[in-house]
């Protein structure tokens, strides 16, 4: 099985890339979604988040209120690291179990999408790392439109991630998402075609 780690800053186009890779036959896991499920009520991480951040980060139904938690952690890097120390190991455990399942199933290509792939050490789980990068101005307007985060909230998340230059230097492949979605699709197909197939370990 070949594991591709897909990274890139907030809003650079990682999800669009995963849509194309799914169509090309890869199984895709998104770490943001795994992270959210790692702290559902009843999990160890949920209890740790309540101990660390208090009941004020819970909604009436007992789920972690990500909006409230985000406001705390993106205003204070020490608090953000406390959250990462809880969530990253819990998410990694979920990801490792899913990777094992795919390996047992005989899947050839798995893509794991992780915004902070290098920061969290997940690059070591991947056979190759691809980073998706996009011009900053375009990123901000797209993320504002889609997520409702304002410019200063986006800037705070960007500041808590490696710079594009650092990711590009560390990655095996850089996908420059600075054109149309059709151009992005063509670029991905070309990179995909260059991977030797049926080379699973
Ligand atoms: C802080 C939380 C509660 C905010 O939830 P929210 O629904 O607003 O955002 P969501 O999880 O959908 O993430 C959206 C984007 O924010 C950015 N982001 C999320 N966590 C971080 C972080 N620790 N540092 C920098 N950027 C981050 C990423 O680009 C991500 O794609 C949530 O992101 C979280 O639990 N983060 C901790 C886990 C983590 O570090 N995940 C991302 C890196 S692998
Ligand atoms: N080349 C492009 N042309 C037009 N729109 C684009 C392009 N690339 C991405 N988008 C749009 O920009 C938004 C952000 O892209 P996407 O969700 O793929 O980014 P992401 O890296 O997954 O974001 P996040 O880090 O928040 O998860 C989406 O609405 C997407 O459709």
UniProtKB/TrEMBL annotation:
<comment type="pathway">
    <text>Cofactor biosynthesis; coenzyme A biosynthesis; CoA from (R)-pantothenate: step 5/5.</text>
</comment>
<dbReference type="InterPro" id="IPR027417">
    <property type="entry name" value="P-loop_NTPase"/>
</dbReference>
<keyword id="KW-0173">Coenzyme A biosynthesis</keyword>
<keyword id="KW-0067">ATP-binding</keyword>
<keyword id="KW-0547">Nucleotide-binding</keyword>
<dbReference type="GO" id="GO:0004140">
    <property type="term" value="F:dephospho-CoA kinase activity"/>
</dbReference>
<protein>
    <recommendedName>
        <fullName>Dephospho-CoA kinase</fullName>
        <ecNumber>2.7.1.24</ecNumber>
    </recommendedName>
</protein>
<dbReference type="InterPro" id="IPR001977">
    <property type="entry name" value="Depp_CoAkinase"/>
</dbReference>
<dbReference type="GO" id="GO:0005524">
    <property type="term" value="F:ATP binding"/>
</dbReference>
<dbReference type="GO" id="GO:0005737">
    <property type="term" value="C:cytoplasm"/>
</dbReference>
<dbReference type="Pfam" id="PF01121">
    <property type="entry name" value="CoaE"/>
</dbReference>
<feature type="binding site">
    <location>
        <begin position="11"/>
        <end position="16"/>
    </location>
    <ligand>
        <name>ATP</name>
    </ligand>
</feature>
<comment type="function">
    <text>Catalyzes the phosphorylation of the 3'-hydroxyl group of dephosphocoenzyme A to form coenzyme A.</text>
</comment>
<keyword id="KW-0808">Transferase</keyword>
<keyword id="KW-0963">Cytoplasm</keyword>
<keyword id="KW-0418">Kinase</keyword>
<comment type="similarity">
    <text>Belongs to the CoaE family.</text>
</comment>
<dbReference type="GO" id="GO:0015937">
    <property type="term" value="P:coenzyme A biosynthetic process"/>
</dbReference>
